[in-house]
Amino acid sequence: MRKILSALFLFTSIVSFGQNYHKYVNPMIGTGGHGHTYPGATVPFGMVQLSPDTRIDGSWDGCSGYHYDDSVIYGFSHTHLNGTGCSDYGDIMLMPTMGEPNFNPKEYGSKFSHSNEKATAGFYSVKLDKYNIDVNLTTSTRVGFHQYVFNNAGQANIILDLNHRDKLLYGDIKIIDSKTIEILRRSEAWAKDQYVYARIEFDKPMQISKVEANQENKKDFYSGTVVKVSFSKQVKKGEKISVKVSLSPTSYEGAKLNSSEIKGWDFNKVKQEAEQLWDKQLSKIEITETDKDKLAIFYTALYHTMVQPNIAQDIDGKYRGRDNKVHDGEGFDYYSVFSLWDTFRAAHPLYTLIEKKRTADFINTFLKQYEQGGRLPVWELASNETDCMIGYHSVSVMADAMAKGITGFDYEKAFEAAKHSAMLDHLGLDAYKRQGFISMDDEHESVSKTLEYAYDDWCIAQMAQILNKTEDFNYFMKRSQSWKNIFDWNTGFMRPKKNGGWDKPFDPREINNNYTEGNSWQYSFFVPQDIPGMIAAYGGKKRFEDKLDEMFNSESKTTGREQADVTGLIGQYAHGNEPSHHMAYLYNYVDKPEKTTEKVHYILNNFYKNTPDGLIGNEDCGQMSAWYVMSSIGLYQVTPGKDIMNIVKPLYKNARISLSNMQYTISDFNQDINFIDFKILGSKFKSGFKNYEEYTFYKFQTLPVIESTGKSFKNTHLISVDSKIDVGFDEVYYFVDYDFKENIDDNAKFIKYTSPFEINRSAKVYAFINFLVTGMFKDNTYKRFTKSSTISATFFKKPNNYTIDIKSTYNPQYHAGGKEGLIDGINGSTNWRKGDWQGYQSQDFEAIVDLQNVKEVSSFSSTFLQDQRSWILMPTKVEYYSSTDNINFTLITSVTNDVDTKKEENTIKDFNFKSAKPINARYIKVKAYNYGRLPEWHIGYHDKGEAFIFVDELTIK
To answer: Has residue 73 got a pLDDT over 70?
Structure first.
């Protein structure tokens, strides 16, 4: 039974006194290892992140533009991402130099030393060794402030390179006067169409000394897809040049308006104002601690949760919407950079505590993006939807805010937007709605998407409950149970399904395309919406506890694809990536809070350090740090959208949290208390009716599983239908359709399943379960049958008895069902992640097809796929050989590739050949030549990446 702590014992009102919290922040934490943070200057939730760039190659560990291992700075740009796994930003780059100006980054870049580098909250400084220039940086919300000290006399230059880092779609530089310029930079990277307007003001007149522009190139205006300008001035030793750069997403006028944030040229004043903003912001959670490292770890973590989302509107409220049009603000602040797959877990629950107004603004931003872009954001960046990651987790943020009574947004509009996103037919949702799960045949990352959609659906149901929408509540609660359809009750894992049955072989440690940045271990505990149901599925509390123990105590090694995100392993728990973040708290649900405390404190003390590599994985826009902040003060919300929080023995006792106009102290507590009621924080949760688990008695309902040895067969094929039913109560029915009709809806054709059966020709098999359900209505118990969704599996009788001998070795991740998968007559789609293609890396592909006897052959075809972004390239050529003895082969023909390696769309090509006259042969050899090392223009070239060959079907007639 859950033990829930009441308000009276946990929180007490106190008086707060200000401190210089900014001094505890170490922005260098996370700049090394795989943290992907940046060290530069910014203010809370600011538009500007003014930081040095040491990486310009788009490499994974350079996503923020900076990595601590580097020794060269290429410039200082005004936008940066905090801890993401994709590269973008780096807009409006300035680089001070001396001497003759140069536009080659390798030439104008400068060595630097960490001993001459300083980073604090709101301030960054460094010495550029090559030029003996001291650089000082600070910011306001929308303006970056540079101060350069030239320690040598001579020609000083400030390079403005609009081609810095990502692809420039269009840029222009307009000279207003010798001290003022205006800029438009429109670029493409992760965000496909990003607009940044800027206004640059120098405190001294500057002269243009060098220009490169490939469109307009005149005295006061330069434009094109290559735009670079050098501004120069003769300086004395020790002379300073100050520069202010204001940003706007809307217009030149917006940038000019935003420049009013900083008046005058007092650098120290602006720096102090930035520090004061951080002091106020960081004081929202106060801890008592004498260890300087722990103070740095805690307040840097809190700082990292507050450098995004970023304000994305001008001072007058104008912003660029998802429709790429400029809109007027409507009583709220518009934000950008929503890494929702990460941040719904801990960062947004933290914001509901200390950022209630911003939480409402975030949601209003979501709703405007829904109105302007047609759906809620998934991973929004600069008013672009990147569609990175999965789920529709903006509904989690909205449901959690509603459950906690946060106001300032339209609840009805929020529900409308949430329901709309859930009812779309893309990204596997069509299959999910139709059959209650996503299979490998439907969509890649099928297990993760099924699980995360199910949680999001529960969130929508909670919104419906608050709004008294009973029909919607029941519909989405039923969908929220879809996790059961990919839970294998025999192995105790969430598993991928293919063609109606479980995909085989199965290794829960394997990282593959059925899971999002993880494996089955890391997803088999993601049922936050129905933890009691999940515990029951595992066999009760003791077995569930044992399963958690097994996960934490397993070998800390994964198999399958190399996944850089999966770090911080404790057994198969991976703290370096988000799917694991709630798992240590699951011990609370089986009355073992001491195990939660043990695991949480181990993570707090070992995976967070006051060093550049002090984060065990990507910061992910504050999620990694939010986990630390919440857990260290003794709180964590496993299920956003539910009005309770987990508690754990705090690392910092008596932490004080600012809530509205009051502060509260989190006191230590008895170890047998596992949860707190969120109503103590002023929640106005509106319950329309009883909780769902009290409303209907649901047993463990799942779909049937159609099992066989494969999708294709030669003579006859044995099929069984497995199910988790109560024998004598529930019933399984099946139907074999040899005619492949488009729709099967006549239940009279279905036969009650009693034992495995055989088919002897191609067919489609359907199955469903009739569950006997007990429920309660108006205090009366009832019994009735309810029919599950109908699932199907398709089986093909092979058109011949050919066999194949593959001489190459395919990557186990990409096996397409084994060697027979290349001659089964079943063609793969452009979505190779569904598992229908065989992949070969760093080797040629070679296979011999045995036709079983000598035949007259005239047509040859082999099918290959290209997805250059995933390192999959067409073979350079394909050769066909014939033989009658499998020893002596004769070259028939060679077919050369004609698909451009730079083509971005996934492409399928048949390398086919038709002979003018038949060829007598029993054996046909196919050899495809691998492209080899990726070309120089490819992002994987710098990692010495080798291309894959992806092949599916070999056809010989």
So the answer is: yes
